[in-house]
C-alpha cells in the first residue's frame, strides 16, 4: 500500500492511475481538459490537463487508451495529484507535525528544511529531495523568502477549511548498513496546519487522514504559553506569552490529547508510533537555565545519534515540565505512548525583534534533534555512546 502524500488516501499499487502526456510538439496526444477531481481537491478552478486513466496492471508506464501515447506520469486515483517515481518506488514513513496555535510550527518547518538541505544533510550524508514542483515553489514563496530573504516572521497560517493547502513533501534518503548497504528513505510530509485546525471539534477529513496515515508524530509545545514556565522566561517573553486564552496550559495540552485520541482510533492499547515532543522557542529561557547545561550544550556533529546526550536532554526537559507544573503532559504521554521522547529546540535561535528576526540572524538550535531520534527509531541512523 502507498499512502498518497497529498490526500492521504491509501492506494493499492494495482490502483495507481496515469495521466496522459497530452500532445507536445508534433507528437499527437489528448487535448487538455478541466480536471474536476484535482480542482475539487485543491479547492480552486479545475486545472486544464490531459485526462487521467487507469489500466489493468499498472507498472511504471502505460499506454493512454484514447491516444495510445505512452506515459510515466502516475497519479493518485483519489485526488489526481502526481505521485513522484521515487515516492512510488520507496514510499517511506510519514511524519506529522502538530502543535497549538502560534507554537512555532511554520517557522520550524522553514528552518528544518533549510538545515536539512545544508548543514545536517551534509553531516548525515543524506539527500533531501522535494517530491514535486509545488513543494519547491511553496517552500520558496511561503517559507524561505520571507524568513531567509526578508528576515520577517511568517504570517499565521490560514485555516485549511475550504481550501486545503498542499503539504510539503520531501524524500530524505540515506545509505545505511555497513556490510549490506541499502538506501532507506523517510518521507517528510509536512502539512503546515493552522493551530486552530487541530482544535476544531469537527476536524476536516483531510486532517484526520493525515494523522491516521502518520508513522511518527512531532508535537511542538510553546513554553511561552505554559503558565508554569513564566518565571523561567525573559521579561519580554512573559509579556508576549499568554495571549491566546486564559487557561493556556490546557491549550498546549489540548492539542496533545486531541491528536492522541485521533491516532488512537487505530488501536486500543498504548500507541506504538514514536512521538517526539519538543519545547519550541527555548531561546526565550536561556538566562534562567544557564546552570542546567544539557540543553545548552551544542550537539556533537557525529553523523549518529548520541544516546548519552539524548538521555540528558530528555531528563532535563522532563524536569522542566515538572518544575512548571506541566508534568501532566509527561504523565499523559507515558500512559499513551510506548515510545516518546522529549526535546528542546529553537528555530530562530534568538528572540525576534517585533516582526523581524533578531539582528544576529537565524541561528537554529537543536532543530534536527527530533528528526535524528526518529531516524534512529526507524533504523536509518546509528546510536553511539561516548
Ligand atoms: N523566541 C522565539 N520565537 C519564535 C521561534 N519560532 C517562532 N517564534 C515566534 O512564534 C510566532 C509564531 O510562529 P509560527 O511559526 O508562525 O507558529 P505556528 O505554529 O505556525 O502558528 P499558526 O500557524 O498560527 O498555528 C512567531 O511569529 C515568532 O514570534 C523561536 O525559535 N524563538
Ligand atoms: Mg503556521
Ligand atoms: Zn491523493
Ligand atoms: Zn491520451
TrEMBL record:
It comes from the Bacteria. Pfam families: DO-GTPase2. Residues 94-293 form the Double-GTPase domain. Transmembrane segments: none annotated. SUPFAM superfamilies: P-loop containing nucleoside triphosphate hydrolases. Gene3D superfamilies: P-loop containing nucleotide triphosphate hydrolases (3.40.50.300). This is Double-GTPase 2 domain-containing protein. It comes from Nonomuraea glycinis.
